[in-house]
Amino acid sequence: MITSALFPHRLAGVALAAAALLAGPLAQAADVTLSGQATFHNDVVQIDFSLDAPGTLRVWTDSWLSGINFDPTLALFDGSGLLIASNDDANIDFGAGPGYFDAGIRLQAQSGSYRLTVSAAPNFAIGTQWQNGFALDGESPVAISQWDQPSRDLNTNDQKGGFWRVQLQGVSQAAVVPEPATAALLLAGLAAVAQLRRRHQP
Q1: Rounded Cα gap, residues 73 and 71, in angstroms
Q2: What tens-digit pLDDT sequence spans the chain (202 residues)?
């Protein structure tokens, strides 16, 4: 698994940190919406965000859409990689957007860096540390559209979509961590930019 600047001992952290230096903040808003497409049943979407000041943090999915897409689960880690919260089916009122099998977390958070993961239940975080991985890491990938998701879901034994969407409320900036291939391309591009800059220096 790759990580970002929250966990600097991994390659993607170098890529994202360098990208931030060149491009500035990836997103700056009190409320952020991020979405994408998961391909396999054991994919883990990784979203890094920060809080400039302590306050109420609310994060939730609204992509289940009554079983059109997979039943998501969320895990939240702090900047040291410690699991501080997780949720499969939200039992907190997040408004009209989330469905019964969407996931949500609400807590009082300190300023700092965080990582949120989105995965398909029951691909839950193992233990209390990021490096422990996730429950389905050792399984051969199965396309979500062909997977029998073992949850009490309207789409059990049926095809389902891989679309995910997360709402983050009260964050300073947020970005999805790129896949390994994307991170490698980003590193190559950053190296090329740096080389061009050196060539044009007097």
Answers
A1: 7
A2: 333 333 332 223 323 333 333 333 444 447 899 999 999 999 999 999 999 989 889 999 999 888 889 999 999 999 999 999 999 886 666 665 566 788 999 999 999 999 999 999 999 999 999 999 999 999 999 999 888 888 655 555 566 899 999 999 989 888 888 765 444 444 444 455 455 555 555 5
Q: Which structural domain range is residue 180 located in?
A: 11-200
What phi and psi values does residue 130 have, to the nearest 5 degrees?
A: -55, -40
Provide the CATH number for the domain around residue 118: 2.60.120.380
pTM (whole model) above 0.90: no
Is residue 4 one of the residues assigned to a domain?
no
